[in-house]
Amino acid sequence: MTKEEVLAKLKFDVELRGFSKHTQAEYYTKVKLFQNHFDKPATELGVEDVRQFLHYLSTVKKVAPETVNTYNSGLRFLYGVTLNVNLNHRQIPRHRKPRKLPDILTQEEIQALFNACDNLRDKCILMTLYGAGLRLSEVASLKVSDIHSAKMQLFIRNAKGSKDRYALLSQANLEMLRAYWKAYHPKEWLFYSRNHTDTHLTSRAVENLFNKYVKKANITKNVTVHTMRHSFATHLLESGTSIYHIKQLLGH
Description:
Layout: H1 3-16, H2 21-38, H3 47-59, H4 65-82, H5 107-115, H6 120-132, H7 136-140, E1 147-148, E2 153-156, E3 165-168, H8 171-184, H9 203-216, H10 226-238, H11 243-250
Antiparallel strand pairs: 1-2, 2-3
Helix pairs in contact: 1-2, 2-4, 3-4, 5-6, 6-8, 6-10, 10-11
């Protein structure tokens, strides 16, 4: 098999399993990079090559443990399912993630982040991220039709684990979304690409604007886009919301 044939077979298998679009793209990209690293199709590579590649990612490229684990999962699926090769998983262990409490933004810091925004669109994206406790990919792929103003909910389709759910839509967030709609007139995708209005915003674009405003707001904590989700949950807990209800809102 050629490298392209391996990828085509992998694509078929992840679609057959009904994996989320995000997982499909992750596995495809990781396997493609693995093959390109050795410039060989995976059929000509084995467990020792997988071990060397994962070691290279960790020690040379300094890739984060959770990302190395994504490579690991993709390669396990490739060999175990697509190529039907029985790998010894003990030889390709997953990285242990260091367990430490995430940094949380205070409500004052969240407001400072909103105030730092240059335009209504960016402010609306950040407010929706925080106000609904969304994951990065979830806010990027929201559709206009996902806003259920009568029920004060956002419909989150095909979230982690390929599950749909409803997220919280506050009155302040709804008013901001209405102002955004009047100014930008989104059609299908709520937050569309500036270059291609028929496609949704990429996760990388959301990361970039978040990092831009963290710096502009003079926030020195070690935070990522996912910090908004942690902060949302923490602030709800502090306000007396039950853990069970918070877990439902987060899709856990």
